[in-house]
Amino acid sequence: MAEQGKSQGKSLGELGLTAQGGRNPFIAGLAVDSREVRKGYLFAALPGTKVHGATFVETALELGAGAILTDAEGARIAADALSRSEAALIVAEDPRQTLAYTAALWFGGQPETMVAVTGTNGKTSVATFARQIWTELGFDAVNLGTTGVEGAYQAPLHHTTPEPITLHRMLAACADAGITHAAMEASSHGLAQRRLDGVQLKAAGFTNFTQDHLDYHATFDDYFHAKAGLFTRVLPEDGVAVVNIDDPRGQDIAELAAERGQRVIRVGRTPLADLQLQGQRFDATGQELRFGFEGKSHLVRLPLIGGFQAENVLLAAGLVIGAGADADRVFETLPHLGTVRGRMQLAATRANGATVFVDFAHTPDAVKTALTALRPHVMGRLVAVVGAGGDRDRTKRPLMGQAAAENADLVIVTDDNPRSEDPAAIRQDVMMGCPDAIEVGDRAEAILRGVDALGPGDALLIAGKGHESGQVVGDVTYPFDDAEQASVAVSALDGGMA
Ligand SMILES: CC(=O)N[C@H]1[C@@H](OP(=O)(O)OP(=O)(O)OC[C@H]2O[C@@H](n3ccc(=O)[nH]c3=O)[C@H](O)[C@@H]2O)O[C@H](CO)[C@@H](O)[C@@H]1O[C@H](C)C(=O)N[C@@H](C)C(=O)N[C@H](CCC(=O)O)C(=O)O
Ligand SMILES: Nc1ncnc2c1ncn2[C@@H]1O[C@H](COP(=O)(O)OP(=O)(O)OP(=O)(O)O)[C@@H](O)[C@H]1O
Ligand SMILES: N[C@H](CCC[C@H](N)C(=O)O)C(=O)O
Ligand SMILES: [Mg+2]
């Protein structure tokens, strides 16, 4: 859509596309949405979850589309409209993948050294740590994903893995701005829809695999295969796979990668790991790690809360090493890593020393992980504020409640982006897993109640929104920031001591 960056236009042939009847028109831009087509554009009419994009070919042609990329079914749907037009028709077996390659060629540039990370939880954290390590090593680096483009080039993103046109526009802008290193998140939606198939990866990472997104993927296996595609399809054979093998599905990924001839760096606590976490000691503000790599032992202090962040850090270190950096130099940077925004972030401290953390845990496993990770840093009781999003996987709600009940001493159930659903009904779903919890719909009030419950040595975990800056109710997004609300609550209760 729009002006499509620096490109002045390219022929279909230059974009690696072959049209039926040998037509080779000059293409002025790319669009996946018919409403964004301009004169001379290629319109990718993709099979969708609700409708086939080919339904909109007529509109695209009226707006001046010069070429249509679709699949055989799309060509049938649009046959009538196409027969009355001069537009070139490209029929591809997998038009989403073809679009990804086309977008890569259209925009031309991407940072020289790119890595991607997939998994249910930890993608944003790993991508952010990889960027921080590269920055410490002196490279101009970014991470791209849920929190936007961050680092030496910054821009907002609406998706964790943007569709290929947006993705490659952004990568080209990064490369133009001198960015040489980029770590991106590969969401399961992004992988299933081939959004990053045009990205040239040096290494790819796998964090873990637990329940999420069963609203989109038909089965758990489909969800797994979407993620595995990062290694079986996107990462080339000479790429390096960096895999958490403490996760049982990580072992499957490591095998798939090895079968493709990729070098595998196994990360984990197990003796089978190449980058092995051997010991961890926690204190109020961070942790010390002992780990081994290639016969050497290392001891570093991480200024980070949460045992799982050590797994994420080692995975990030593995990715940076896999992408070509010297291991010892990489390990020297680890004490300088900083908190990832909205992930185990210390948001406020009460006058009595009790602490308030904001975390993005929004799956059953993440709620459990975040709470158990906080435990060793906390002397007293652990309080959790938790809620589940509307218009998302409903089956995870009671499991999130249960994870909170099993791992916190007091649970407060509240709203988290109810979207088009009835907020009270979502809270009921969550409460099924934690019937003894306190229910407080208004999130600001829930945070206030949670902070109020804290005695000396206690800690509060506010789960679910992390870095988010709004509460989505119906079609309206109200400004809302958990970290800010934590400070407000502490000020209100302790008189300006946030
Ligand atoms: C569920 C999902 O992923 N949907 C994506 C999918 O749309 P769809 O298959 O549902 O589209 P559809 O409504 O059936 O329409 C089919 C096609 O017709 C086109 N169309 C539609 C209407 C029209 O007037 N003209 C037109 O051309 C659409 O652009 C689409 O290409 O294909 C579209 C085009 O590639 C994507 O933009 C769209 O992402 C939407 C925006 C989305 O919100 N996706 C979310 C769920 C997502 O991807 N999230 C993940 C991360 C989640 C996480 O980890 O938590 C992410 O990476 O951000
Ligand atoms: N390695 C891990 N294992 C288990 N849970 C984790 C791990 N890393 C992070 N988490 C939990 O998951 C939450 C989200 O972390 P993060 O944002 O890094 O994941 P993500 O995979 O990018 O999520 P999303 O799919 O929403 O983009 C964290 O706030 C934390 O509670
Ligand atoms: N990328 C995730 C984020 C969920 C965060 C949580 N606050 C919610 O709204 O459910 C999703 O869209 O499912
Ligand atoms: Mg993310």
TrEMBL record:
DNA repair keyword on record: no
Entry comment on modification after translation: Carboxylation is probably crucial for Mg(2+) binding and, consequently, for the gamma-phosphate positioning of ATP.
Amino acids binding meso-2,6-diaminopimelate: R392, D416, N417, P418, R419, G464, E468
Needed co-factor(s): Mg(2+)
InterPro entries in the cross-refs: Mur-like_cat_sf (IPR036565), Mur_ligase_C (IPR004101), Mur_ligase_C_dom_sf (IPR036615), Mur_ligase_cen (IPR013221), Mur_ligase_N (IPR000713), MurE/MurF_N (IPR035911), UDP-N-AcMur-Glu-dNH2Pim_ligase (IPR005761)
Pathway membership: Cell wall biogenesis; peptidoglycan biosynthesis
Cellular component, GO annotation: cytoplasm
Pfam families xref list: Mur_ligase, Mur_ligase_C, Mur_ligase_M
Family as reported in the entry's similarity comment: Belongs to the MurCDEF family. MurE subfamily.
Protein name in the entry: UDP-N-acetylmuramoyl-L-alanyl-D-glutamate--2,6-diaminopimelate ligase
